[in-house]
Amino acid sequence: MQIINQWHQFSTATQVADEVLKQILKSAENAITKRGVFKLVLAGGSTPEKIYQQLVNAKTDWSKWMIYYGDERCLPADDKERNSMMAANALLSKVAIPATNVFTMPTELGAIEAAKKYRKTIDDVNQFDLILLGMGEDGHTASLFPGHIHDLEETVHEVYNSPKPPPERISLSAKTLANTQQLFFIVTGDSKQDPVKQWKQGVSLPVASISPKNGVDIYIDNAAIG
Question: Which CATH number is 5-225 given?
Answer without folding.
Answer: 3.40.50.1360
